[in-house]
Request: fold
Amino acid sequence: MNGSEQVIYIDVLLAAICANFLFDWLLLWATAEVTKTSTTPLRLLGGTLCGSVHYVLYMLATYGLIGGYGLLRFPVTVALVSAAMLTVTFAPQGTARSLLRLAGTFYVILFVASGAGFALGNMLAYGGKANPAVVQVGAVLALVVTAETGWGVVQRRIWRQRCLVPVEIVLGAERVRLKALVDTGNSLTDPLSRAPVVVVTIGAIRPLFPEAVRDDLDGLVRGDFDRVGGIMLHHVLASRVRLIPFTSLGAENGLLVGFTPDRFRILLPKTIEISRRIVVAVAPQVLDPAGEYQGLLHPGLLEGAAQLEDAPSGRGDAEVRPVEVQSN
Reply:
């Protein structure tokens, strides 16, 4: 080594190897979590070992203890190691698209975390050279923050765009607009008409009714069925009232009070008017404490709407006939 001896700090080397092992494990775990791809602890360990073995060889070559330094850091070699990590952890995962999605997520998280790690390592460098252990620890911390915070923000934004749908409910001359969550667990249908049921919190639906009826409506929704008389005497709602049986935790034989609106629209980029009869059930409690949505949309309604939205059309508004929804 040109007459000079290189000092290798074993503790620093071991710390860097351990940090790299943790980083690779978290990287694969985060990829699985973000893409919702199933794996097993054994597969996760195997994929992590693939990356760790390469890293150990790379570090040994860096210190001149073995040859092949150029080959080990060659981009093609690194890409093959990454592919091996993903294959061991997730294969087989079906289509090429799913594999590309895994690889894309893997590399996005890798670049973000690695960049932060090197930045921290350079900030705390000594002797003009970044400490490998600091680089790995910084990368691990950045990975955790990215997976738990950054991806959480992205997923929440996607969740709002895909699962929260603006809708409009019309009754007589009144209308309300609110956000509804597409609830895949909502299979409620009217037992008489088989119409799909949309659940809406009472606070959002009350403006549809005149002041004289609202107290009776509040009592009826909360289980005081003596209030039915008041509804029958005061409002056109008399012929529209429905009782929807449901089962949930804490209410094995519950009843929801509902009504049939005059019109129901899904306010996607195209305003989509639901042409078949539906029932709006009124929930006495707040559905979302955070206030992001006030209703639960039957998924059958959105399936028909999505098909229409994807189809080319010259009209601004369109009519949807949702798929038939069977009750359990």
In short: The chain has two domains: 10-162, 172-320. The mean pLDDT is 75. DSSP finds ten helices and ten strands in the chain.
